[in-house]
UniProtKB/TrEMBL annotation:
Belongs to the cation transport ATPase (P-type) (TC 3.A.3) family. Type IIA subfamily. It is found in: Cell membrane. It comes from Limnothrix redekei LRLZ20PSL1. The keyword Heme does not apply. SUPFAM superfamilies: Calcium ATPase, transduction domain A, Calcium ATPase, transmembrane domain M, HAD-like, Metal cation-transporting ATPase, ATP-binding domain N. The chain crosses the membrane at residues 75-93, 124-140, 288-309, 321-342, 859-879, 891-910, 922-945, 951-976. It is a multi-pass membrane protein. Keywords: ATP-binding, Cell membrane, Membrane, Nucleotide-binding, Translocase, Transmembrane, Transmembrane helix. This is Cation-translocating P-type ATPase. Residues 21-95 form the Cation-transporting P-type ATPase N-terminal domain. Signal peptide: none annotated. PROSITE patterns: ATPASE_E1_E2.
Length: 990
């Protein structure tokens, strides 16, 4: 398939084609230009050809960072910069020593080199190697993270409704091609540029593209000057903009990088890589430690030189360099990044897509989960079970969305009579017939039979669109009302769309061209029929007559009371109830096409003086897994709340069934909430867990009230108007399946399966991530403190005069080895620790607690001191012992080795705060065992393999020395385990 036109050549390189001013064409010209067929849509073969020609409808990820940017970014890290500084100083010292040697021996520099007066600058070289390695590792991690993010972006890529192969399908936005006909409605993000073919009240927010804050009212019958600016092209829609209101049928004109958004090449990133508060805090900590260590260097060097004399300057500089390296936890940032990345991956496996990284951490401290009802707590499979008309009750039977089943009248005593035959419905029960007609006409969903579904037990009947409306189409099918036939016979002329604020929708259809099955027999000679459906209370207020059989009669106060009573009866069974009404009209009211909210209830409001048809009660069963998830929430100290647009009795029945509310608990309605001051609401949110008939702005008030009470609130939402509440909530959660793009854009997390249980699972993962971060922060920083204290105490304990040579127990190289390898590997393994059994049996951690809270800071300092005391004791012993041997320098290797081995024991012990090593299941996190074994072997290689010995400045330990190292290291583990036993005893005693 090729498209030949003067403006668009049929080359695969369509980007090179001259752009068309689509706004200057009328719909027909645009259709011809693109060889499109709006009635049937393109065929699959045409779509394939056009995809090959134009490429997928994707924007190149221009917002992402280039390879070089990521790589250079690694070396901007303050810790690495400090290491580079240390390497330069260390190299300078070696050069200085060489220069001094040549001076003393009266040699030229070249002779000095030849005679080996210049020591090999291995510390400096090794530091450079480590800096480069660290940078490369960081780069690999980050580019993997960027890849993972773009994979996540694809997961959240929007779906679009298109007309293809003579039917309406839902496809991935990236599969759109020029010539496709897409159907857009409120809440959608427009997926490609296009020429509008049809619309109803279409309003689009184009701020993303034009910067214009006000939504734009779109129009069809306009052809504009080719020079018209972007913001004034009222007959076009643009990729990346948002449909605020109404619906439209749009011919796709440009896709991918050829869209206006593609042209200005600003991608709206759907997944944001923000730093988490913890990462920010760690960065600040890193900066503080680097500054602190610099101050320490200056103090030790200046103070030491002053006290000990200029001749010790070099030794003091070496000590201080080691300390500077020891203070900084070089391995920590990488481990945190990996842990967060692993956490988000585990969450995706459990169907929660994290859009903003800080959410991973915040999830661990969530105290309240505010959830929608429909679709999140319930299955969102609407099955109509009952109809309540003026003087008729009907029981509805059938399976799922299958449009087959029966309509059985029920008498006042509850006796079920023979079903009304569909063929005679119009004569036998004209009111039911009219109600079913309103169900089909006032409907935007599509009921389809997918014959390719061959799974046993799975129904081929499925809906595209809102399940509530799908349920109504299935109901209409039971009376033989076929959607396709009806929408052709009674074409829609205008509509006032549904929104969660209005809680109702109305359509205006033309009845003057209808054939034999005309509704005129019941509705009279109307040219236009208005059909409305929505919240029964709200719709009833707008009715002044009621349909009784084939006649409409005035609605009396007794009728109203009766209808509301029946509504309550259905709702208290947990059914979702909709009211239906209609009105015959002589002509289309001018307000129908541009209905403004301020018209509500005014004389010009078309939604007035309606004729009440009846109530439809639908079963939307709770999701089976939610009861257990609610119970887990409660055990975890998290309060589940239901905030729904549905009726209070429906909400209450479902909330009680799920355990969110108890018998007798209060339900607060939107109307009551409206009358409350924010102070009163704050007081109420502490007690009330179910909110019904609320609007999106009430959700915002509820979140604010909860937050004012110090709660950390997660809030779900799916509509366009939910965006402010989602942004305000600590964790805004959007629905992956039914959610609008606007809500997803505003959210921190998207539920890929729309399921409440997934929120609880994500919360659990958030807690695991936080626990693991605390675990390895404890592990890494505890030993850092130990290292610093040991190095600092060496010059005090071992008299300089005796050592003669250097007095630094640990060289910068050895410290880097410990921080990055012997600490780093087990820390990574600790990041993989599975959830502890009690992770959802304890309250959430306090919202604003720092990472060092709950004893972590004290633990680090305590363990650091224990490390230092034990290592210093070993240093004293080993120094004296080694002086009597033929390898007097081995005391340093002993200090180095025992610190490493003690950390191995620490890694095993730190896995649990309460269980002893022997009580833990080693196989529940085999990575710890593997990393400990591997690291121990590497350490032994450093001590015993000659090339490594000379590089790392170690010497082989004899058997006694090795045993002593083990013994001293064991002391540290004994202390940690002793602490656990003491705490157990202490808590038991209390
Ligand atoms: P939740 O807030 O838990 O998702 P909900 O679906 O009831 O529940 P909304 O979508 O805000 O919340 O709907 C509010 C009310 O509007 C519904 O209870 C119903 O009475 C009415 N309603 C829902 N969908 C439609 C629709 N497609 N057409 C007309 N009225 C509707």
């Amino acid at each position: 398939m090729t498209i030949d036109s003067p403006a668009r050549t049929a080359t695969p390189n369509a980007a090179a084609a001259k752009p068309v001013a689509w706004h200057s064409l009328d719909p027909q010209a645009a259709i011809e230009q693109l060889q499109a067929r709006p009635e049937t849509g393109l065929s699959s073969a045409e779509v394939r050809d056009r995809l090959a020609q134009y490429g997928p409808n994707e924007l190149e990820d221009v917002g992402g960072r280039s390879v070089w940017e990521i790589l250079l970014g690694q070396f901007g890290d303050i810790m690495l910069l400090m290491l580079i500084g240390v390497a330069f100083v260390s190299a300078g010292l070696d050069l200085f020593e060489g220069w001094q040697g040549t001076q003393q021996a009266n040699l030229s520099l070249a002779e000095g080199f030849q005679q080996g007066k210049f020591p090999f600058p291995k510390d400096a070289l090794a530091i450079f190697v480590i800096v480069i390695l660290n940078g490369t590792l960081g780069y690999l991690q980050e580019s993997r993270a960027e890849k993972a993010l773009s994979a996540l972006k694809k997961l959240s890529s929007p779906r679009v409704r298109v007309q293809r192969d003579q039917q309406v399908l839902e496809v991935d936005a990236k599969e759109l091609v020029p010539g496709d006909v897409m159907l857009i409605e409120a809440g959608n993000q427009v997926a490609a540029d296009g020429r509008i073919l049809e619309l109803a009240n279409l309003q689009i927010q184009e701020a993303a593209l034009t910067g214009e804050a006000h939504a734009v009212d779109k129009q069809v019958n306009l052809t504009l000057d080719p020079e018209t600016s972007l913001g004034d092209r009222l007959n076009l829609v643009f990729q990346g903009t948002e449909v605020i209101q109404g619906r439209g049928k749009v011919l796709v004109t440009e896709t991918g990088m050829r869209t206006e958004l593609g042209k200005i090449a600003t991608m709206i990133q759907s997944v944001e890589a923000e730093e988490t508060p913890l990462q920010q805090r760690m960065e600040q900590l890193g900066k503080a430690l680097v500054t602190g260590s610099m101050v320490l260097v200056v103090l030790v060097v200046v103070g030491g030189t002053f006290a000990l004399g200029w001749e010790n300057f070099r030794k003091l500089l070496e000590v201080s360099l080691s300390m500077a390296v020891a203070v900084v936890p070089e391995g920590l940032p990488a481990v945190i990044t990996v842990t967060l990345a692993l956490g988000t991956q585990r969450m995706v496996r459990r169907h929660a897509l994290i859009r903003k990284l800080p959410a991973v951490e915040t999830l661990g401290s969530v105290t309240t989960i505010c959830s929608d009802k429909t679709g999140t707590l319930t299955q969102n499979k609407m099955i109509v079970q009952a109809l309540e008309l003026c003087d008729r009750s009907v029981r509805v039977t059938g399976q799922g969305y299958e449009p087959f089943g029966s309509l059985q009248p029920v008498d006042a005593a509850g006796q079920v009579a023979e079903p009304i035959p569909a063929e005679t419905l119009v004569q036998e029960a004209p009111d039911v017939y009219l109600l079913l007609s309103a169900c089909v006409l006032c409907n935007d969903a599509i009921l389809q039979c997918d014959k390719t579904v061959t799974d046993r037990g799975k129904s081929p009947w499925m809906i595209i669109g809102d399940p509530t409306e799908g349920g109504l189409l299935a109901l209409a099918g039971k009376g033989n009302l076929n959607q396709e036939e009806w929408t052709k016979r009674y074409p829609r002329a205008a509509e006032i769309p549904f929104s969660s604020d209005r809680k109702r929708m109305s359509v205006f259809v033309r009845t003057d061209q209808a054939g034999p099955l005309s509704l005129a027999a019941i509705t009279g000679p109307a040219k236009v029929l208005m059909a409305s459906k929505g919240s029964p209370e709200l719709l009833l207020e707008r009715c002044d007559r009621v349909q009784s059989g084939a006649q409409a009669r005035p609605l009396t106060p007794a009728d109203r009371a009766d209808i509301l009573e029946r509504n309550n009866q259905l709702a208290s069974k947990g059914l979702r109830v909709l009211g239906l009404a209609y009105k015959p009209l002589d002509q289309l009211p001018p307000e129908a096409n541009n209905h403004a909210p301020e018209q509500n209830g005014s004389a010009t409001d078309p939604e007035q003086n309606l004729i009440w048809l009846g109530l439809v009660g639908m079963m939307d069963a709770p999701r089976p897994e939610v009861s257990e998830a609610v119970a887990r929430c409660r055990m975890a100290g998290i309060r589940p709340m239901m905030i729904t647009g549905d009726h209070q009795l429906t909400a209450k029945a479902i909330a009680q069934e799920l355990g969110i509310a108890a018998e007798g608990d209060r339900v607060l309605t939107g109307t009551e909430l409206e009358k409350m001051t924010q102070g009163e609401l704050e007081e109420a949110v502490g007690r009330v867990s179910v909110y019904a008939r609320v609007s999106p702005e009430h959700k915002l008030r509820i979140v604010k009230a909860l937050q004012h009470q110090g709660k950390i609130a997660a809030m779900t939402g799916d509509g366009v108007n939910d965006a402010p509440a989602l942004k305000q909530a600590n964790i805004g959660i959007a629905m992956g399946i039914t959610g609008t793009d606007a809500s997803k854009e505003a959210s921190d997390m998207v539920l890929l399966d729309d399921n409440f249980a997934t929120i609880v699972a994500a919360t659990e993962e958030g807690r695991v991530v936080y626990d693991n971060i605390r675990r390895f922060v404890k592990y890494i920083l505890g030993s850092n403190i130990g290292e610093v204290l040991t190095i600092a105490s060496a010059p005090l304990i071992i008299p300089i005069s005796q050592v003669g040579g250097d007095l630094v127990p640990l060289t910068p190289l050895q410290i880097l080895w410990m921080n990055l390898v012997t600490d780093g590997l087990p820390a990574l393994a600790l990041a993989m620790e599975p959830a502890s059994p009690d992770v959802m049996q304890r309250p959430p951690h306090a919202p604003h607690e720092g990472i060092f809270a709950r004893g972590l800071g004290a633990y680090m300092v305590r363990i650091g001191i224990v490390f230092a005391v034990v290592t210093i004791a070993l240093m004293v012993w080993s120094y004296n012992y080694a002086q009597g041997t033929n390898h007097p320098e081995s005391w340093k290797t002993m200090v180095f080795t025992s610190l490493c081995i003690a950390q191995m024991g620490h890694a095993l012990a730190v896995r649990s705060e309460t269980k002893l090593i022997v009580e833990m299941n080693m196989l529940s996190n085999p990575y710890v065992l593997w990393s400990v074994t591997l690291t121990t072997l590497l350490q032994l290689a450093l001590v015993y393999l000659p090339p490594l010995q000379s590089f790392f400045g170690t010497s082989a330990l004899d058997f006694t020395e090795l045993l002593v190292c083990l013994g001293f290291s064991a002391l540290i583990v004994v202390w940690i385990e002793g602490e656990k036993l003491f705490l157990r005893w202490f808590w038991n005693k209390r």
